[in-house]
Amino acid sequence: MDIVQELLAGSPRALSRAITAIENEYEEAFSIMQKLYPHTGKAHVIGITGPPGAGKSTLTDKLAKKYRENGKTVGIIAVDPTSPFSGGAILGDRIRMNELTMDPGVFIRSMGTRGSLGGLSLKTSDAAKIMDAAGKEIIFIETVGVGQSEVDIVKAADTTIVVLVPGLGDDIQAIKAGILEIGDLFVINKADRDGVERLNTELEMMLDLNQNKVKWRPAVNRTIASRGVGIDELMEKIEEHRTYLQESGELALRRTQRTRDELLALLEEQISRRVTEKMRASGELDFLVASIEQRRQDPYSVVAALLDAYLI
Amino acid sequence: MEKRIRVLVAKPGLDGHDRGAKVVARALRDAGFEVIYTGLRQTPELITEAALQEDVNVIALSLLSGAHNTIFPKVLELMKAKKMDDVLLIGGGVIPDADIPGLKAAGVAEVFTPGTPTSDIIEFIKANVK
Ligand SMILES: Nc1nc2c(ncn2[C@@H]2O[C@H](COP(=O)(O)OP(=O)(O)OP(=O)(O)O)[C@@H](O)[C@H]2O)c(=O)[nH]1
Ligand SMILES: [Mg+2]
């Protein structure tokens, strides 16, 4: 059996290997995704984002357990930042999810952000598709919400949960940085701490201001993830959002948009890869750079000529 | 190619702290590896299952409890059952010299005793990961 057949037959090892193939950009990744694609599109993808240490992994762990109690299979993709200095990373989200590891209905994979951030959102969405094809019904993607790249990652989600905590001082800053727009649901975690009321009021005010722009008014939920408080209510809201997406036609709209975005991103990536590979192989890259530097050619004409030469 | 060496660092057994394991984890990150850190009190079952899901190249166990003669063989047995034959198992901690040859014969790739510079561990991983 090849890796795709094994994966479809339920092998966790094949699932694991397939994700490695896309992460490491192995040659066979493309054909794996080609064969898996017809088996995707069934899972509900939940993005969980928020500042470092907000309790995203703890919350994911608790939500995953609830979905398991309801008989759903679960996949979890936990993304942590790669060190820009060494290229290495410490991926520590699993610490909060150890109890899920032995459950055969759960598959957890940690990913570093590695090099290209644009590449990362393609890779996380491919990893989610691989888990989807492997039969995982609910897929969580956890990312630290600090920049645009993370926002791009959660675009792969059907329901995005923004996790905030009271008393950080920069709450409002985080909200301003575009996070308000991406949240389908908001969670104030660590509700056992001071400042919950203030943050809740501020959030509700901002969401009210935003209300005329959107059809779905995000709910603000309070949780104490470490003690399992508020998880049932949060899961109800997730299911409410899922129903809303289906009944309003929003799900179909979002998926069309996503299919379009992904097709264009893939096209861009493949064009760039093919042309660069050929340039490297022919050794003309260095020659062209030198000739542009000496103003014998300009980069615009060079690119036009390269595309003519290599794309047809 | 975006390949990275992936290492699962775990601290099985019941004893207290994981300072040593964290030092190793940080050194491995600084060497450019992706370190999956699973924390304290891990069972062999949990370690090998996590290693399988994370598709790591190396499992690094930090042991203080003197349980090495039971934990290592159990992890090796589970690795075999899961067909993880290309995964390197290494260990560190207070392990008597007399026990090391036996562990290596059983399939532990290398044992690092306290005081080993982390650079030795890094070199060993780089040289032996397939
Ligand atoms: N007081 C309190 N602590 C919590 C709560 N939820 C989580 N924590 C603790 O907060 C710390 C961070 O939790 P994580 O779940 O690792 O947070 P995270 O957002 O995944 O962290 P990163 O992935 O590192 O960004 C842990 O020590 C948790 O036990 C809560 O509701 N209240
Ligand atoms: Mg986390």
Overview of the structural elements:
- The complex is a heterodimer of chains A (about 300) and B (about 130).
- Chain A has about 300 residues and is of the alpha/beta class.
- Chain A folds into three domains: about 1-35, no CATH class; about 40-245, Rossmann fold; about 260-310, no CATH class.
- In chain A, about 55% of the residues lie in helices and about 15% in strands.
- Chain A has helices spanning about 5-10, 10-25, 30-35, 55-70, 100, 115-135, 150-155, 170-180, 195-210, 230-250, 250-280, 285-295, 300-310, and strands at about 45-50, 75-80, 90, 105-110, 140-145, 160-165, 185-190, 220.
- Chain A has a seven-stranded parallel β-sheet, sandwiched between helices.
- The radius of gyration of chain A is 22 Å and the shape is globular.
- In chain B, helix 2 (about 45-55) packs across helix 3.
- The mean pLDDT of chain B is about 90.
- Chain B is α/β, with parallel strands linked by helices and about 130 residues long.
- Chain B has helices spanning about 20-30, 45-55, 70-80, 100-105, 120-130, and strands at about 5-10, 35-40, 60-65, 90-95, 110.
- The longest helix of chain B has 14 residues, at about 70-80.
- In chain B, strands 2-1-3-4-5 form a five-stranded parallel β-sheet, with helices on both faces.
- Chain B is about 40% helix and about 25% strand.
- The interface of A and B includes residues 26, 102, 107, 108 and 115 of A.
- Strand 3 (about 90) of chain A pairs parallel with strand 2 (about 35-40) of chain B, so a sheet runs across the interface.
- The structure holds guanosine-5'-triphosphate and magnesium ion (MG).
- Magnesium ion binds near residues 57 and 93 of chain A.
What is this structure, in a nutshell?
The complex is a heterodimer of chains A (312) and B (130). Chain A has helices at 3-8, 12-23, 29-36, 56-69, 98-101, 117-133, 148-154, 171-182, 196-210, 231-248, 250-282, 284-293, 299-311; strands at residues 44-50, 74-80, 89-91, 106-112, 138-144, 159-164, 185-188, 219-222. With 312 residues, chain A is α/β, with parallel strands linked by helices.
